[in-house]
């Protein structure tokens, strides 16, 4: 087997390429391969595969990918045996293959062999090993997974390749074979046009090959690019290569010295000495203390020399301590610096946006101190107080005067007018390489006078405002900060309070991290409280935060005036009254996020107006549009917004807003449910309140998609109705989500909404509501296998229906009781209920339920072994269902016919019926029943000797069962797969023995 990561992720076994499946699975394999045998924790894998926004099921998705990869890479493994290729190690996984099977490992091993050959003085062998190493690259690492291009290990690989290219060129220069390395050096130089070391070696190689015109062209192009983009002259290495070119003959001593210099960089530092290399240290947040290369031109810090030279401004505040996480953000800032270095323009490295307390200033300062040697002419810093509680934002004129003073302009020489001050300021920055950190900016008008006008300077802007104008007008790179992932939040807490207390109370740490939601300011306050009370258990702090009603108070810091509530209040000072009202109501909105139509209902505003208000709140980082058309808040921001609404808005206004948004969800869900189940009895809804416009849906596909998107919000809206005792809404909303929850297999959600729905129906005067509530609650219990409770509620429904002579609901109750009793193994009593229901439906002129009950009688007859009678009933049902376009009922009956066919030896017909049922169930999104039909169709496949198809459908059933939380069913089908394999092996053994 061979695993390729240096290029698109690919795997071969016995010369045949394997189908790795979806991008997520290939990404997981790629990250494990990059680790080169080391185990990676699940939290590390989650952080790598999802950039700060993993789904709630991230761990389950990784487990599923691991399972598929194990089957693919270790096909001979027994289902329950430990995987040798991808074993579970602690709470994570590792890829354990031989070094020669992993191209990354082979690359580094060739580099190590080249280093040994260099030390032995074998230039030819050094070149051969390096040529093999570079020949392993088939493109960029993980080339088909661009989202992983910024992974720290990938960046380290790029550094190792660049050093290997240099060493390869030097080795071939030493052997007189420079022309062999020209293609790879040309390619690498094109990728890194400001890398002087690559340019220098390319000049020397062209010189050695007698191509002096190309050597001059490379030198001249690099010299002009360095001057235009960095404002520097060529460094010693490139200048020396040019001098050799002018002399036409390379100096042997210089060649040896250059070769020794590059060969010393042959391996990244962590491969030579066991310590992390500088690039890797930067990505891990470890300071190197060494000058940073810019195009490999060493920049020396200008210091006062005692000869009257003015001191270089060093205005950066101290770097933050401790600093954890933010690896991706730091890499993005560095990349933005590199990518935006275009001739003739100011380099606005990034506009760092995010809500207050998210860590924008810390990120800017940490990056600035790590890259301080790129800016030898100084660093300027100003707090623009854009969202400061103590007063108005700092005027641009004041900031410019401060910078002029830092640049040693005498006060008497500073012009009076702002335009003249800005002109002087930009003149002083011209030709310099300086970093400007403009912290806590309010808007573009405050910033524009502070932007330099010449290349070489870099600007870091932090603001709660997203600064879209800065991006549009000045090409700034926007970087929006989100909360810390769980692993980084834990590291931050441990860095503040030490490891002993967290190790003693891991459960309390988990709860603290969850309550703070990865919000750095909140984590800092918790750490400060823990340090102030070292005798308190962390569980006591967690208990304070557990109650959402008191959480914000526990995260306040009145002495410093910088607790979470205070910091958020500074952002709210910038809001208009309309924006403040929308912000407060969003804090009351049910669900983890909200779509635009729901927000319009909540606020009672037209769509265009509420969109403008949401965009304004997004601009100042109080809400975040995480997907198009949907906005969310951090949990702590939501708590603060809800408090503001309770303080600023009358109770009647708040209740009206909640009634509107709950009515929006109810009316839209009812319309969507009619698409999914057009034959269900209608619900009589009150007209929506003024300002509440249900979301129009065109068809069943859109209805199912809307339910999928809004599921969490619908459940939250139901809880709002329950807490406010809006009994009719509680009952009606439960009915409106029934079909969706049933089809998607959300069985526990279905039970919860109908438990509340049945309780609410008891408060309603309409007996039909009570009957149907007990009917659906009974079905929900039956779906979970809680049959005694199911039958109890179904009997109560039947009793009330008989009391009111409600024949339609009597029939539905008998139908449901038949299903529940058959499920309990009581086939004869079940058949009696089904027959009673059938006789009632024949008199009610309800062909859809008549057909459904015909199928039920047929199904129960089949359980009793009466297959021919069962087939006649099911075929009659199928005719009715197709006539009335009851797709769900048709699928159920086809499933019954497949069962009857299989048990009467007609396995080809069984497969045909099951496949038709599958097609229909997939079309209507009935995930719950798709799993059951896949489970069933495997049996006739196995009976026909189609073991490959039986295994495939059963494995798909196992996946679906696990996604639906049906672990027992998944294990049962997994045993069927294992049993099938054993039977095949036994048959194969008997066959070979008979030969």
Would you write up a description of this structure?
This protein is mostly helical. It folds into 5 domains: 2-101, Arc Repressor Mutant, subunit A, CATH 1.10.10; 104-272, Alpha Horseshoe (Serine Threonine Protein Phosphatase 5, Tetratricopeptide repeat), CATH 1.25.40; 334-480, 3-Layer(aba) Sandwich (Rossmann fold); 486-563, no CATH class; 721-733 and 746-984, Serine Threonine Protein Phosphatase 5, Tetratricopeptide repeat (Alpha Horseshoe). The protein contains 46 helices and 14 strands. The strands form 4 sheets. A 5-stranded parallel beta sheet has the order 8-9-10-7-11, sandwiched between helices. A hairpin with a 2-residue loop joins strand 2 and strand 3. Helix 4 runs antiparallel to helix 5, helix 22 runs parallel beside helix 24 (538-546) and helix 40 runs parallel beside helix 42 (887-903). It is globular and about 105 Å long. The chain starts with a strand and ends with a helix. 45% of the residues are buried. Mean pLDDT is 83; it is low at 249-308 and 988-995.
Structural class: mainly alpha
Remind me, CATH topology of the largest domain?
Serine Threonine Protein Phosphatase 5, Tetratricopeptide repeat
Q: Provide the CATH architecture of the largest domain.
A: Alpha Horseshoe
Which CATH class of the largest domain? Mainly Alpha
Q: Roughly how much helix do the residues carry, as a percent range?
A: 55-70%
- The total tally of domains equals 5
Shape: globular
State which percent range the strand residues make up.
5-15%
Q: Rg from C-alpha positions?
A: 35 Å
Number of helices: 46
CATH superfamily of the largest domain: Tetratricopeptide repeat domain
Distance between termini? 33 Å
């Amino acid at each position: 087997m061979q695993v390729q990561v240096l290029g698109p992720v690919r795997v071969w076994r016995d010369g045949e390429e394997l189908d790795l499946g979806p991008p997520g699975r290939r990404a997981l394999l790629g990250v494990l391969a990059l680790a080169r045998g080391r185990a990676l924790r699940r939290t590390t894998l989650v952080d790598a595969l999802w950039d700060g926004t993993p789904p709630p099921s991230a761990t389950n998705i990784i487990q599923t990918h691991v399972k598929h990869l194990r089957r693919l890479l270790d096909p001979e493994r027994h289902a329950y045996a430990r995987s040798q290729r991808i074993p579970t190690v602690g709470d994570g996984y590792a890829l354990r293959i031989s070094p020669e099977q992993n191209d990354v490992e082979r690359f580094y091993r060739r580099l190590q062999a080249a280093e040994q050959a260099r030390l032995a003085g074998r230039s030819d062998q050094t070149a051969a090993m390096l040529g093999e190493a570079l020949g392993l690259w088939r493109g960029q690492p993980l080339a088909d997974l661009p989202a992983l291009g910024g992974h720290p290990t990938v960046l380290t690989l790029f550094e190792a390749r660049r050093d290997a290219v240099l060493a390869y060129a030097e080795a071939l220069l030493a052997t007189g074979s420079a022309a062999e390395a020209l293609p790879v050096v040309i390619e690498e130089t094109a990728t890194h046009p400001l890398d002087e070391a690559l340019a220098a070696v390319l000049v020397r190689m062209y010189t050695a090959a007698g191509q002096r015109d190309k050597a001059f062209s490379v030198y001249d192009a690099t010299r002009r690019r360095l001057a235009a983009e960095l404002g520097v002259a060529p460094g010693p290495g490139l200048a020396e290569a040019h001098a050799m070119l002018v002399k036409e003959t390379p100096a042997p001593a210089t060649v040896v010295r250059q070769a020794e210099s590059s060969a010393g960089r042959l391996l990244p530092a962590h491969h030579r000495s066991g310590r992390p290399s500088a690039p890797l240290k930067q990505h891990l947040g470890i300071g190197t203390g060494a000058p940073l290369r810019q195009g490999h031109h060493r920049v020396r810090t200008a210091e006062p020399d005692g000869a009257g030279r003015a001191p270089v401004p060093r205005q950066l505040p101290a770097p933050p301590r401790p600093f954890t996480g933010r690896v991706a953000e730091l890499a993005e800032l560095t990349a933005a610096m590199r990518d935006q270095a275009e001739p003739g323009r100011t380099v606005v490295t990034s506009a760092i946006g995010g809500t207050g307390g998210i860590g924008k200033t810390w990120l800017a300062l940490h990056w600035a101190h790590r890259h301080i040697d790129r800016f030898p002419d100084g660093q300027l810093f100003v707090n623009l107080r854009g969202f400061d509680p103590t007063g108005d934002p700092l005027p641009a004129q004041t900031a410019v005067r401060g910078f002029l003073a830092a640049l040693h302009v005498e006060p008497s020489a500073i012009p009076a007018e702002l335009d003249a001050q800005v002109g002087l300021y930009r003149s002083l920055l011209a030709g310099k390489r300086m970093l400007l950190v403009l912290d806590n900016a309010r808007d573009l008008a405050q910033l524009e006078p502070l932007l330099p006008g010449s290349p070489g300077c870099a600007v870091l802007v932090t603001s709660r405002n997203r600064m879209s104008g800065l991006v549009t007008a000045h090409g700034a790179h926007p970087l929006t900060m989100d909360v810390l992932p769980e692993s980084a939040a834990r590291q931050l807490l441990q860095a503040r309070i030490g490891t002993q207390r967290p190790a003693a109370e891991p459960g309390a740490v988990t709860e603290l991290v969850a309550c703070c939601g990865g919000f750095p300011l909140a984590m800092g306050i918790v750490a400060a409280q823990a340090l102030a009370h070292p005798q308190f258990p962390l569980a006591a702090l967690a208990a304070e935060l557990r109650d959402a009603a008191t959480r914000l108070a526990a995260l306040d810091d009145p002495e410093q005036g910088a607790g979470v509530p205070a910091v958020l209040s500074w952002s709210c000072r910038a809001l208009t009254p309309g924006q403040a009202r929308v912000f407060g109501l969003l804090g009351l909105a049910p669900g983890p996020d909200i779509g635009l139509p729901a927000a319009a209902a909540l606020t009672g505003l037209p769509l265009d107006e509420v969109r403008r208000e949401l965009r304004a709140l997004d601009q100042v980082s109080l809400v975040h549009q995480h997907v198009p058309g949907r906005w969310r808040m951090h949990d702590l921001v939501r708590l603060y917004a809800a408090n503001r609404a309770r303080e600023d808005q009358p109770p009647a206004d708040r209740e009206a807003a909640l009634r509107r948004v709950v009515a929006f969800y109810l009316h839209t869900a009812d319309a969507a449910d009619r698409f999914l189940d057009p034959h269900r009895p209608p619900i009589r809804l009150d007209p929506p309140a003024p300002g509440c416009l249900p979301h129009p849906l065109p068809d069943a596909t859109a209805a199912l998609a809307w339910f999928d998107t809004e599921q969490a919000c619908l459940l939250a809206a139901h809880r709002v109705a329950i807490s406010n005792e809006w009994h009719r809404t509680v009952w009606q909303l439960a009915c409106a989500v029934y079909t969706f929850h049933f089809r998607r297999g959300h069985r526990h959600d279905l039970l919860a909404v109908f438990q509340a729905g049945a309780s609410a129906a008891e408060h309603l005067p309409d007996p039909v509501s009570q009957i149907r509530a007990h009917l659906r609650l009974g079905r929900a219990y039956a779906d979970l296998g809680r049959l005694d409770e199911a039958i109890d509620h179904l009997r109560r429904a039947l009793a009330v229906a008989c009391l009111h002579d409600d024949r339609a609901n009597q029939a539905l109750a008998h139908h449901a009781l038949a299903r529940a009793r058959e499920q309990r193994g009581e086939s004869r009593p079940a058949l009696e209920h089904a027959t009673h229901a059938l006789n009632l439906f024949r008199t009610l002129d309800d062909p859809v339920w008549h057909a459904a009950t015909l199928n039920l009688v047929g199904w129960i007859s089949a359980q009793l072994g009466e297959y021919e009678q069962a087939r006649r009933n099911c075929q009659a049902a199928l005719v009715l269902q197709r006539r009335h376009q009851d797709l769900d009922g048709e699928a159920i009956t086809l499933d019954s016919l497949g069962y009857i066919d299989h048990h009467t030896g007609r396995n080809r017909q069984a497969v045909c019926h099951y496949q038709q049922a599958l097609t229909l169930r997939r079309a209507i999104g009935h995930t719950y029943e798709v799993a059951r039909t896949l489970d069933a169709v495997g049996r006739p496949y196995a009976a026909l000797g189609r073991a490959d198809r039986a295994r495939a459908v059963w494995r798909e059933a196992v996946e679906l069962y696990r996604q639906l939380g049906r672990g027992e069913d998944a294990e049962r089908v997994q045993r069927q797969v294992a049993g099938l394999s054993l039977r095949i092996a036994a048959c194969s053994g008997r066959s070979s023995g008979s030969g």
